[in-house]
Design a protein that fits this description.
Shape: globular
Number of strands: 0
Radius of gyration: 14 Å
Helix content: over 70%
Distance between the termini: 6 Å
Order of helices and strands: HHHHHH
Oligomer: single chain
Length: 112
């Protein structure tokens, strides 16, 4: 793993940690009623996508189980779809995808 890859993985894991902290035990209904929370989570998802885009090609080729394209696409979606972001997509990403990503990246980082 290149030195910068470890830095970007750190940014991704930090963003996941922030999202976990923001959401805590928040229910789905409470999430949808809290625009500030939605905006904060969306910002961190954007950071995840940006950091993913910065990972080296060699890292991406070596670790093929990470969904790089969808992660980058999520960032682009959040940044460019100002008024059309589906909060359900944000919620599902946080609850279904991020826990798996956190485990995978933590393993890669420990192998580092």
């Amino acid at each position: 793993m290149e030195k910068n890859d470890d830095l970007y993985i750190g940014h991704i894991l930090e963003a996941i940690g922030k999202i976990e902290g923001y959401l805590g035990q928040t229910s789905r209904d409470d999430f949808f009623r809290n625009n500030l929370l939605i905006d904060g989570v969306a910002r961190e998802l954007g950071i995840i996508g940006e950091a993913t885009n910065c990972l080296s090609q060699s890292f991406k080729e070596e670790h093929t189980k990470i969904p790089y394209r969808p992660m980058i696409a999520m960032r682009n979606y959040l940044i460019h779809e100002y008024f059309g972001v589906d909060d359900e997509v944000v919620w599902k990403t946080c609850k279904e995808d991020l826990p798996k990503l956190k485990v995978t990246l933590s393993i890669f980082r420990s192998e580092g």
